[in-house]
Amino acid sequence: MRIFISNALLNDLKHPNEYVRGSTLRFLSRLKETEILEPLIPSIRYNLEDRHAYVRRNAALAIYTIYKNHEHLLPDAPELIMKLVTSVMLRLSRG
């Protein structure tokens, strides 16, 4: 059953609509099941670089909460978030 759930969530993380991706990331930030989250980590990380701010914001929230609850799944989470913040600040400074 967990395989089907993970597969459905993975498909939503790769969905062409940014609101589906963002909502899925928001849901994942509430999920506590390590077995479901673990195979989704690469797709969550990939969404940090999405062109839509809504998706990036929810990816950052998901990474933060996964790191807080399951640090071993994302040991480099602080660096990922710092990289995101740096790129946003650079984009804002360029106008």
Structural description of this entry:
The chain is mainly α and 95 residues long. The chain has one domain: Alpha Horseshoe (Leucine-rich Repeat Variant), CATH 1.25.10.10. It is built from six helices and no strands. It starts with a helix and ends with a helix.
Radius of gyration: 13 Å
- Stated plainly, the CATH topology is called Leucine-rich Repeat Variant
Based on CA inertia axes, which overall geometry fits? globular
Contiguous low-pLDDT stretches (5 residues minimum) are none
* CATH hierarchy class name: Mainly Alpha
Tally of domains: 1
**Which structural class do you get from the secondary structure elements?**
mainly alpha
Mean pLDDT: 95
Order of helices and strands: HHHHHH
Percent in helix: over 70%
Name of the CATH homologous superfamily: Leucine-rich Repeat Variant
Tell me the total number of β-strands. Answer: 0
Distance between the termini: 48 Å
**Proportion of β residues?**
under 5%
